[in-house]
Amino acid sequence: MPSKLLVATGNEGKLREFKKVLCGVADVVAPHELSLPPKEVKEGTSYAENALAKARAYRDQFDGLICGEDSGLEVDALDTRPGPLSARYGGEKTSYPEKCRMLLKELKDVPLYERTSRFRATIALIDGDEVKTFEGVLEGWIGFEPRGTEGFGYDPIFIPKGFSQTNAELGLVIKNRISHRAKAIGKLAEYLKSR
Ligand code: IMP
User: Fold this and answer.
1) CA 85 to ligand 1 centroid distance, Å
2) What is the pLDDT of residues 24-37, one digit of tens each?
């Protein structure tokens, strides 16, 4: 019988990815499925700290495995900004199409070969008294205009290495196979299978 794993997220897209990759490995549940309230976590400047803070927020209410995830987009020409602050880039209330436009504007004079970028995801797992972290990276570059309608966030401007389309053009089937989050969840799956 697989162990129950509470994934501390209210994001349905992230939850679907966890459920898919961990199918048969862990019984993934989200806070709202256990009638636990969403938690406001004050995010800092490190993915691992943020991921752990998200998981710790449920420690008093759930007796079992808990994990949190934090991710962001790193742009080399911007000294890896926005990074862990990706959700707040341009202000928390700014829409993603607008955030994408702002980022493209910051890169308007940057040539193709200097537009390298990556998505990074870190998962923190609380396993009893131990904390384990798992990381996944998707390398690529930032395009010159938004393209595509699938996915979310910065997907319309991110072109993964080895492809000529953006994440938003490639669609979820391909994206979920190559994504930073899928890689981090895959490492978590290996750990859960071996414990
Ligand atoms: P978090 O939900 O606090 O981890 O924030 C993640 C930030 O990175 C948000 O701004 C997301 O839009 C962005 N992000 C993370 N993963 C992806 C992705 O797969 N596609 C597009 N944007 C992403």
Assistant:
1) 10
2) 999 999 999 999 99
The number of the ligand 1 atom at minimal distance from the alpha carbon of 99 is 10
Per CATH, is 3-194 categorized as 3.30.1330.30?
no
Of all protein residues, the one whose alpha carbon is nearest to atom 10 of ligand 1 is 87
For residue 100, give both structure tokens: 């994408």
The number of CA neighbours under 13 Å toward the Cβ of 192 is 28
Model pLDDT for residues 157-192, shown as the tens digit of each residue = 999 999 999 999 999 899 989 999 999 999 999 999
Q: What residue ranges do the domains of the chain occupy? A: 3-194
Residue 9 Cβ contacting ligand 1 at under 6 Å: no
Is 71 close to ligand 1, i.e. is its CB under 6 Å away? yes
Six-digit token string for 144: 């010159």
Token pair listed for 154: 């910065």
The active-site residue, picked from 63, 70, 76, 127, is: 70
Number of H helices, E strands in the chain: 6, 7
Q: What is the DSSP letter of 109?
A: T
pTM of the model: 0.95
Residue type, position 69, single letter: E
